[in-house]
Each structure stands twice: as C-alpha cells, then as structure tokens.
Amino acid sequence: MATSATKQSKTASITAARQEPGSGVEEAAPAPKKRRSLVKLVLLLTLLLGGAGGGAWYFLQDQQPAAAKAGPAKAAKTDHARADPSKPPLFVTLEPFTVNLQHEDASSQYLQVGLALKVSDAGAVDAIKLHMPEIRNRILLLLSSKKASELATAEGKKTLSTELAREVLQPLAGSVPAQGLDSVLFTSFVIQ
C-alpha cells in the first residue's frame, strides 16, 4: 500500500507542476496544434502552386496553332502549304528582259517583261543573287523560245509563270529548297 500512495503523490505533484506556470515541467499539448497548422499550410501551398501550374499549362496550350495541336504529320503538311503569315514577304526584282519572240509570220515581234520573285526567307534571296547570271540566262532562253500567240492569253501567262519558276529553281537545286520560291510575278508585260 505504501507504493500505491507514493505513486499517487508523484502523479499529483506532476499534475500540480503542470498547472503551475513557473515549474520545470511544461505541458506538451500545444506541439500537435503547431504541426497541424504547418501541415495545413504546406497542403494549401501545394494546392495553390499545382493550380497555378495547371492553369498556366492550359492557357499556353490554348495559344498553339491548330496545326500543331492536330499532330506533327498535319503540321508538316500545313507548313509546306502556306508561308508564315507573321513574316513579311520578300521579293527579288529582276532587271527587265527584252527578247525576240519566235516568228509566226514575216514580221518580228518583241517581248519586254519585268519579273519579281517572291521568296519565303532571306536565305533564298541570297542564293538567287549568287546565281543571278545563270537564272537570267535560263529565263532569256525560255522567253525567246515562245511565240506571241502562246503568251497573249491569261492562261498562257500563267503557264509561262510556272515554267519560269522551274527555270529559276534549276540552278538553285542544291542551295534553295523547292518551297523557298513562292511564285514568279510579272511587273510588266509588253508584246510588240
């Protein structure tokens, strides 16, 4: 019995010491409340950062072009179909050409034509300027092989434009890809 009385007195003294503010024994109850608030804070910050990251991803994905969303195969097809609309077009203006046309009757006929080449990038401009003598030679040979009746109609001029594009690209085969030249444009066209 003496031991149980001793135990009771020890527990009573510890309980009294906990209740006294200046005693050496302090209560450990506030520590779990601090941990709970710290865990809540960490969870709240994780949710906020995850939500912000998800929202940023969603809005950045929304700004991609439709071709890129559709997949790489479709994006490659649309890249070749049209040039980048954000870039201004580049033009290379050629000096006017004056050639004798093929004779259809006894009189001679002449063609004077001004050309501009529409290209997609500055690399194509540099390659065209580098090969300009070859390009002019090919164009002169093509123009002088035509008859006035072939060039008089709009369809004849469109066909000539396609043939000119092929002739311009021929000396550039290794330096400019086929899509580097967008079109050949007539700036003047006189048959006399």
Q: Give the CATH superfamily of the domain at 90-191.
A: Band 7 domain
Low-pLDDT sequence parts: 71-82
Q: Which CATH architecture of the domain at 90-191 is right?
A: 2-Layer Sandwich
Question: Count the strands?
Answer: 4
User: What is the assembly state of the chains in this entry?
Assistant: single chain
Q: Taking all residues together, what is the mean pLDDT?
A: 76
Q: Approximately how much helix is present in the residues?
A: 55-70%
Specify the biggest β-sheet: 4 strands, antiparallel
| Helix/strand/pairing category | alpha+beta
Q: How far do the termini sit from each other? A: 137 Å
Question: Outline, from the CA principal axes?
Answer: rod-shaped
CATH topology value of the domain at 90-191 = Tetrahydropterin Synthase, Chain A
The sequence of SSEs as H and E is: HHHHEEEHHHHE
How many helical elements? 8
